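Complex 540.
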Amino acid sequence: MRRIIDTIIEKVIFSCGTLSVIFVILIFSFLFMESFAFFKDFDITKFVTGRYWYPDSEPALFGILSLIVGSFLVTLGACLIAVPVSIMTALYISEVVSKSVRDVLKSLVELMAAIPSVVIGFIGMIVLVPCVRKLFNVPTGLTAFSGSVMLAFMAMPTMVTISEDAIHSVPWQYKEGALALGATKWQTMRRIVLKTARPGIMAAIMLGIGRVVGETMTVMMITGNSSRIPHSIFEPVRTMTAVIAAEMGETVKGSMHYKALFSIGLVLFLITFLINFVADLFLGKNKNK
Amino acid sequence: MSKIEIKSFNLYYTNFHALKDISINIEDKRITTIIGPSGCGKSTLLRSINRINDTIEGVRTSGEINVYGENIYDNKIDVDILRRNVGMVFQRPNPFPISIYENVAFGLRVNRIGSNRWTISETVEKSLKAVLLWDNVKDRLHKSALSLTLEEQQRLCIARVIAVTPRIILLDEPCSSLDPVAIQKIEELMIQLKNRYTIIIVTHNMQQAARVSNDTAFMLFGKLVEFDKTEKIFTNPLKKETEDYVSGRFG
Ligand SMILES: Nc1ncnc2c1ncn2[C@@H]1O[C@H](COP(=O)(O)OP(=O)(O)O)[C@@H](O)[C@H]1O
Ligand SMILES: [Mg+2]
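Predicted structure with adenosine-5'-diphosphate bound:
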């Protein structure tokens, strides 16, 4: 009997694993096929370097450069805010406060991860956007900067919890050794703790970036949705994810516009794939050392 | 004149009274060992002398520990400077996961000793020579310290301490993870270092205490039972508990 249960469980686990691999392959081939069909009729260089996204004009223009720039700006801004703040927060939670406070803070941060992105977008709209408009004296508060700030909020829980785990798992013998040599608490953190935890922190950052790149709802609500190449972060932008989400519902299945959206999906997929690949390189290099 | 004067020192881990009214005077340029059964407070006492116990939550102390006539539990004391003067080697070798060179240079950098690259390199070399590790590692200084054997790692940890020129070195069972050959080499090293440093070693190995030390303190249940010359403790102790312990009747 136990044997039978064992084999059944083994089979179930195996099929689940196989299924998820099959799904990934299916999604990828689907994306690939639709994009391929699109690139047969529309030049791929014009797609990537074209500055204008006018799917309804005659002839239709499917240039996504402004969308790529938009996504890039918003993501970069979010990282510049989220990475330092997250590492500091993780250090604070792990190294400064007492054990009981640490548990409370950690659950709070994890709770933050559970806030739906619509809610974050909504808060951004009513709190941040008017502030940005007044503070920087710009015509609209719906800017790349606003998107970056709110996305930083979304990336932080992932970055904080995972880096905190990495920092916390640095053996205390290292810290004790450093302190015993006369290092201050801060020197110990900077020279030993952060160095030892670096692979984990890198992974945390990459996962956070992954979340930011793929985020849709928040950016759609507060970045202004203007597909022009911006001159500064205080101008409205439009991201790749926002275009797909906003326009997928109104296209005719099988049309050029429809296929173009899939091609954007493919570009996004390749970007996230690249980020993961770089993260793996980092982690692998650190492991071999 | 004693270097370390411990006066009615008590330590509590939250509510647990781990050190009970310890008083002891430790002399200069000698090796003192602290012996006693497991859990009697040897490590706790040793870790009080460089205040590394401060890093544990819930530790409270009373009484004084005077190092060179200065009470290190006084509020005015700069703990980082104290720890530079009172080096410590731990039970398990704990080299940092960075290069051999950087392990030794670490203490110099954080204490801003030796401002330029040349003096740092020189001190690293001198320290590694002092622990007889230089010839082994001089061709792989920039390899990770974790690639060394346990004995070499422990030597590296001693070199790291020597590099910042402490006056006192505390060693907490420095040989407990080493094999007999390595133990002998480390013991020889400690005897060599005696000329230049005041050394305190915690050990539960009585042969080791008898072999290397000048003075021996025997502890039991958080109290200091007896402190005297090593020969005296091992051949003609005053207290019955000491005699029972050194003759191997308990512990
Ligand atoms: N961090 C700690 N918290 C609470 N109790 C501790 C802690 N460290 C040690 N103790 C207790 O203090 C006593 C002495 O420990 P220790 O100094 O490590 O003994 P030894 O080194 O002689 O084996 C033991 O009973 C131990 O359980
Ligand atoms: Mg101990």
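Residues 2-246 of chain B form a domain with the Rossmann fold fold (CATH 3.40.50.300).
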